[in-house]
Amino acid sequence: MEQNQQKLRKAVSDVSKEIGRYYNDLELERQLGAIEEVEQAECQCCGIKEDCTTVYITEVQECYCGKWVCGLCSEAVKERVGRSPKVAMQDALNSHRDFCQEYNATTRLNPQLSITLSMREIAKRSLENRKSKGLSIKKLSRTSSYP
User: Which Pfam families is this protein grouped with (predicted)?
Assistant: First the structure.
């Protein structure tokens, strides 16, 4: 009788081990199943590409009018919306996208041209500022040219 009890205990122990392994395998399979596939998303503003999960891509798109934007562009757009509450998210996105496209077309391709264009914009703003304050504007002209 004692020998039968030992065999029964061993059988129960073996079954318990198998059940434990089965549940461990199920848990591991569940964890591995939760790992999402990664795909490449392209920023709708600057064009940078990042590897992201589909869940993350969807969350970002929900925040930015269905467009995926990278982290840097999202901060710029949030800052633009935060500065002026009247600016809608779509307007901030369009404005930032236009800025990025202009930057990529000038600064990235020709930094000297970008500096020239920036100086021109500063001069324009300065002139407009003087005009709005009613200050006299002196015209500069070249008196002679040397070869």
Answer: DUF1677 (PF07911)
Convert 29-51 into a string of H (helix), E (strand) and C (coil).
Answer: HHHHHHCCCEEEEECCCCCCEEE
pTM: 0.52
Cα–Cα distance between 67 and 24 in angstroms, integer?
41
Q: Are strands 38-42 and 49-53 parallel, antiparallel or unpaired?
A: antiparallel
Q: Is the pLDDT of residue 104 over 90?
A: no
Question: Could you give the CA distance from residue 55 to residue 74 in angstroms, rounded to a whole number?
Answer: 17
* Contact between residue 68 and residue 43 where contact means Cβ atoms under 8 Å apart: yes
93: its two tokens? 């996105």
Give tens-digit pLDDT for 59-97: 999 999 999 999 999 999 999 888 887 888 899 999 999
| Distance (Å, whole) CA 57 – CA 70 | 10
57 vs 46: CA distance, rounded Å: 16
Answer whether 92's CB lies under 8 Å from 77's CB: yes
Query: Based on C-alpha coordinates, what's the Rg of the chain?
Result: 33
Give residue limits of the domains in the chain.
Answer: 38-119
